[in-house]
Amino acid sequence: MFIIAGLGNPTKEYERTRHNVGFDVIDRLSEKYNIAVDAKKHRALIGKGMIAGRKVILAKPQTYMNLSGESLRTMADYYKIDPQEELLVIYDDISLDVGQLRIREKGSAGGHNGIKNIIANLGTQVFPRIKIGVGEKPRGYDLADYVLGHFSKAERELMEEGYGRAVQAVEMIVSGETAEAMNEFNRKKKEA
């Protein structure tokens, strides 16, 4: 069993904001693999299915971003998974260019409150993650306002490419090819 959790905030007002890119990737996986993410369990919307020959749970915690760990902790306990081997977290990163990916097998929260809460609840920072770049906060902007803001039309196109790469990365990680996914997707995208 592999839990693939995309981070975001519930309710319509947060849809398609920078902070909800984790939810957006779960939506792409749900669509591609025909996994309905509509069961309400463990303070999340979840769906069970198969990706790359493995049983997976797609999860969108409904606790609001900063309490994501509470939901993931109950899931990890219930399904008796090892976060190091069977959990993948997908979330936004303001230190990466729009649509750029960075895959890590472990690490600190790096200032991301959702990840900080997951680390606190799981008691480890050793779990795979896919960070998706949403661009650096412009000078003078409030960070919360920025990450809860929407993408421009040009940024949305870059994000769609990023979501496609994130789906490919998920497939590789679920198949046990995390190192290969890191080699493939951690490179900066070359300018066309």
Cα(first) to Cα(last) distance is 39 Å
What's the overall average pLDDT, rounded? 95
Low-pLDDT runs: none
Strands of the widest sheet, in order across it, are 2-3-4-1-5-7-6
DSSP summary, beta strand count: 7
Helix content percent band:
25-40%
Order of H and E elements: EHEEEHHEEHEHHH
What is the 3D shape?
A: globular
Description:
This protein has helices at 21-33, 68-79, 83-86, 113-122, 143-147, 153-174, 178-185; strands at 2-6, 39-41, 44-51, 54-61, 87-93, 101-104, 129-133. With 192 residues, the protein is α/β, with parallel strands linked by helices. It has a seven-stranded mixed sheet, sandwiched between helices. Helix 1 crosses helix 6 (153-174), helix 2 (68-79) runs parallel beside helix 4 and helix 6 packs antiparallel against helix 7 (178-185). The radius of gyration is 15 Å and the shape is globular. The mean pLDDT is 95.
Short précis:
The protein is 39% helix and 21% strand. The chain has 192 residues and is an alpha/beta fold.
Key features of this structure:
seven-stranded mixed beta sheet, 21% strand, alpha/beta, 192 residues
